[in-house]
């Protein structure tokens, strides 16, 4: 997609600090000034996919497998003792680039941060949310 920042990076029309390039997924550093930690890496499908809900199985599998390998590399190369995998789909979830991407963020005991959402959602669901979810699979 011509107007997609990540598609432009994948096509080498925009510069990137590459970590890994594979057939169905790539990994690169976030845009300058937006890293959450040293080594924070984005994992992105090569095929333009807007978000998690529209991802094809091949792209999704390639991204999660690459995210795992990036996490292992963070442990080996950076001494990370933990890893957070962040993914937001659509604007209401905080997605800022409309191309599926996963943030792989290394963590250490002394980094003084947490990447868990606080506070929890204030949204109220009328009924049993898990029963309603379960019904979607029947």
From TrEMBL:
Ranges of residues in domain HIT? 5-114
Locate the motif Histidine triad motif.
99-103
A Pfam family of this chain: HIT
* Record-linked Gene3D superfamilies: HIT-like
Record-given protein name:
HIT domain-containing protein
């Amino acid at each position: 997609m011509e107007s997609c920042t990540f598609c432009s990076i994948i096509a080498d029309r925009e510069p990137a600090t590459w970590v890994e390039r594979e057939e169905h997924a790539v990994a690169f550093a976030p845009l300058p000034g937006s890293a959450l930690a040293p080594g924070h890496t984005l994992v992105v499908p090569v095929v333009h996919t807007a978000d998690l809900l529209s991802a094809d199985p091949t792209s999704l599998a390639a991204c999660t497998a690459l995210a795992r390998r990036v996490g292992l590399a963070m442990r080996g190369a950076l001494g990370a003792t933990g890893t957070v995998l962040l993914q937001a789909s659509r604007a209401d979830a905080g997605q800022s680039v409309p191309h599926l991407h996963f943030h792989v963020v290394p963590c250490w005991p002394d980094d003084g941060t947490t990447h868990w959402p606080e506070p929890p959602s204030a949204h109220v669901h009328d009924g049993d949310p898990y029963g309603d979810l379960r019904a979607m699979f029947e």
